[in-house]
Design brief:
2 domains, 7 helices, Helix Hairpins, binds magnesium ion, mainly alpha
Length: 186
């Protein structure tokens, strides 16, 4: 008999939100259709179109209310719900062509910024457990703690084992003139 219980290390899978959406969305779709034939890309495209229509219908109702016209109403929560439905169905459609929505969005957004000469850029979500990202975050945190130590007049603690204590000490201590501990070699 096969032991299907995942190892502890497998139970916590670092992933971005969009990666989680793709995984759970796919699982739910499979559970939803059961043994039925796969719907295919045209169904998913039609479903996305339907959700975009529902979103626009909510916008229409909100606009109707803003103008004081009679007719049915929608709430801001309906707007949020339909935005969510659009994202969920866009992911289902993108999956058909194996599109990584995060990577594609970053690539397209930044290409448009380049094209029109604007500085705004997107970057990938740091994934907990990603060695490079975690290391970079750790280095930034150590740098911040070191600067706090300097401002608080504390001796640098390379181990930074008591980050909370250091921050508490920093908050409790009077601010220095900005030169910081060690600026003069002390
Ligand atoms: Mg909907």
């Amino acid at each position: 008999m096969t032991d299907a219980t995942p190892l502890a290390s497998e139970q916590i899978t670092p992933e971005t939100f969009l990666a989680q959406l793709r995984r759970v969305n796919t699982d739910r779709y499979q559970a939803w259709i059961g043994d039925a034939d796969d719907a295919g890309i045209l169904f998913d495209a039609a479903e996305l179109g339907g959700e975009v229509g529902e979103l626009l219908n909510v916008v229409k109702k909100l606009e109707r209310e803003a103008r004081g016209w009679r007719g049915s109403r929608a709430a801001p929560e309906d707007f949020a719900d339909e935005c969510a439905d659009v994202l969920i169905c866009l992911d289902k459609l993108a999956r058909r062509m194996d599109v990584d929505l995060e990577a594609a969005t970053i690539r397209k957004f930044n290409a448009t910024s380049d094209k029109v000469g604007l500085p705004q850029r997107l970057s990938a979500t740091p994934v907990p457990g990603d060695q490079d990202a975690s290391q970079a975050q750790g280095e930034r945190l150590r740098e911040v703690i070191y600067r706090y130590q300097c401002d608080a007049g504390l001796a640098p603690d390379d181990a930074a084992a008591d980050a909370d204590g250091i921050v508490e000490a920093y908050l409790a201590a009077p601010r220095c003139d900005g030169a910081g501990w060690g600026a003069d070699g002390g």
